[in-house]
Amino acid sequence: MEDFKTQFADYLSHTFISSNAPKEERDRIWLEMNAFVQPNIPQKLYRFRPCSLDSFISLEQETIPVCTASKFRDKYDSLVYVNKERIYQLFDNLFDSGVIDMIYGTNGEDGEILSFVEQQFGKELAETLRTINSELPDDARETVKSKEYFHTFLKGIEPIIQEQITYMQRDRVTKIACFTEDIQAKHMWDNYGDGYSGFALEYNLKEFVCSGCGACADIASCNKAEKNFTHVYPVIYTDQRYDATENIVSIIFSHLLKNLGFPEMMLPIDTLFLHKSYLYKSRESYGQENEWRMICRCPAMESSDYANISDRKSVKAIYYGPDIEERYKSHLRKVAQLRGLEEYDVSVDLDNPNFELKLTKL
User: Fold this and answer.
1) Of 33, 56, 289, the residue nearest 183 (C-alpha)
2) What is the pTM of this model?
3) Tens of pLDDT along 280-289?
């Protein structure tokens, strides 16, 4: 399993899905990635729950609660890194070189910006910009000649950077559910299983890959044209946050072109950077969790930070914590029997010298 996770981390870091790539190309890469992940999804993944009304209702209604990253306890969760110094230096160099000359070039040759666009984003976009250039009024060209304009532009960069750093945490189109590989994990029982007084659910999530709207509890009444795509991936434990600088440069560059008089447009970005942001976590703080994440993207769910999707009968068993109250356990047992779930008592094994919890099938 660790070999697969290392390979997946390497695969993800070297995979780029351009936002302007043809749909066929984007679909091919998604299918390739999911085909790589699906055989490696563990047969059993677990989610620890407190004995709360929401937890009970979710189990009874056969749903999986999902939420935005902003609702996680870890303040660094899905918080990307942006190298501001590098960005400021890049645009400082642009202005020092003379923005007008870079756009229009000299002696009939392309300027640096158009050459950069053609090299990074393709000839088609560069040709479009050349056509627009020829129609720009003189006052738009005069606006950016001075260094004062550069300082004005820099003031506009900072809010853009700050918005993008926290965007993934606030994105309501995307909701996440977290799972772990280890039912024995003491810290999971303690932190998420309400101090051993809650319960844990066992899932088989292999069928959730590319399940689309089939995982949505509101599919019958949904009038959204966009589809909900649900994917399951392992968390990548690392020492550094996901670096989104390249994507932010493209976003800022789009703002610069708009300020120069071009129509509003978005230069290509890596559409995978959403998923990359959600999957990078601190190795030192969370590496022991062996976490997997279900990532759901659906415009129909963006009205709230919380939502529920169908569990599609993926719950297979329930584990009752050592300190669960009898009234809660009695209720959960009725639900488990109605759903045909296997049941286990979890207890401290006084007769075993190691630290493993004892699992007793009921």
Assistant:
1) 289
2) 0.81
3) 888 888 888 8
